[in-house]
Design brief:
Layout lengths: L8 E2 L4 E5 L5 E5 L1 H7 L2 E5 L6 E2 L4 E7 L3 E5 L4 E6 L2 H4 L3 H4 L8 E3 L5 H4 L4 H12 L1
Antiparallel strand pairs: 1-2, 2-3, 3-9, 4-6, 5-8, 6-7, 8-9
Length: 131
């Protein structure tokens, strides 16, 4: 069973958002998503300075099984990317909710966070998807 941090917000497309102390947001894919994808072999992150809108395909994670788009859970500007993933994409498989973050971004519209699921809603969502 996957574990999900309670303080994160979750999108139906299986991304997570963690609001940082400075008001920025870290974004990654959930443990559930990486488990479905299998062993990741390549990650393409957005560029620093990219303006992304909620729902936009903004990154790609590629496993031995398939390539999958990562969608922006909220709108904002990319302020940094996890460069460690370039040489070690498997970090997402090992620690998807910590070291496996994809990028850090500004939060353009805080109300978009309200459209995301909390941990209990996300768990219910993936259970309903599995059946």
């Amino acid at each position: 069973m996957s574990e999900f941090p309670a303080e994160f917000k979750y999108a139906k497309s299986h991304e997570w958002v963690e609001i940082q102390g400075d008001g920025s947001a870290l974004v990654g894919i959930t443990d559930h998503a990486q488990g479905l994808l299998g062993d990741l072999v390549f990650v393409e992150t957005p560029e620093e300075g990219d303006e992304i809108s909620q729902g936009d395909a903004c990154a790609v994670v590629e496993s031995v099984k398939a390539a999958s788009d990562v969608y922006a859970p909220i709108s904002g500007e990319v302020i940094s990317v996890n460069e460690d993933l370039e040489d070690a994409p498997e970090t997402i498989n090992q620690r998807p909710h910590t070291d496996g973050w994809l990028f850090k971004m500004t939060v353009k519209d805080k109300t978009e966070l309200d459209e995301l699921m909390n941990v209990d809603e996300y768990k219910e969502f993936i259970e309903s998807e599995d059946h």
